[in-house]
Amino acid sequence: MDAGRTKTLEPADANKKKARANPDEPRRGFFKEKDMSEFEKIRPGSPIANTRLNYEVLCSVIRPRNQADRTCFWKVSLWADKKIRTRERDTKFFDLIIDYAREAAGPDARNPAAVFMSILKKELNYPN
Questions:
Q1: Where are the beta strands (DSSP E) in 1-128?
Q2: Residues 6+ apart with CB under 8 A from 85
Q3: Helix-strand-coil split of the chain, %, nearest 5
Q4: pLDDT value at residue 47
Q5: Residue 87, Ramachandran bin (φ over 0: left; ψ between -120 and 50: alpha; else beta)
Q6: Rg (Cα) of the chain, in Å, rounded?
Q7: Residue 114 contacts residue 66 (beta carbons within 8 Å)
Q8: Contacts of 38 (CB under 8 A, 6+ apart)
Q9: How far is Cα 3 from Cα 23, in angstroms, rounded to an integer?
Q10: Contact, 94 vs 53, CB < 8 A?
Q11: Which mean pLDDT values do the consecutive 10-residue runs of the chain (128 residues) have?
């Protein structure tokens, strides 16, 4: 060991993850901070709760294979919710998106998430 350097010892449990203070609270990091205001926690009727419900429905139609698919579905849910809230589309807009997801998840689809995104880009002008 070098003469001028000393090794500091850390407690044995320093590497363990800290438990959440309140396990009933949603996990931090699941939603981006810009997507959720301070007063808009996950509760029924809030826009984030609706977006999360849409995300879960989308994931039940097309099973995400990896993190990229989950992120993509979350962004589609945010995009659809924004279109509905700004009144660019009516409330049946997400039903149309689910219909496209069902079409993409056909029995012979090798990569249904990619087919779904391709349909969204062609039919609904979904931005990248």
A1: none
A2: 47
A3: 50, 0, 50
A4: 60
A5: left
A6: 21
A7: no
A8: none
A9: 47
A10: no
A11: 57 54 54 46 58 87 92 92 88 89 90 93 89
Q: Using an 8 Å Cβ cutoff, are 120 and 71 in contact?
A: no
Token readout for 18 is 């800290």
- With left for phi above 0 and alpha for psi between -120 and 50, is residue 73 left, alpha or beta? alpha
Task: Tell me if 120 sits within 8 A of 101, measured CB to CB.
Answer: no
Token digits of residue 35: 């997507």
Asked if 74 and 55 touch (Cβ cutoff 8 Å), the reply is yes
Q: Where are the alpha helices (DSSP H) in 1-128?
A: 47-61, 67-85, 93-104, 112-124
Q: Which tokens go with 47?
A: 């826009």
CA distance 58 to 112: 12
CA 8 to chain centre: 41
Q: Where are the domains of the chain?
A: 39-124
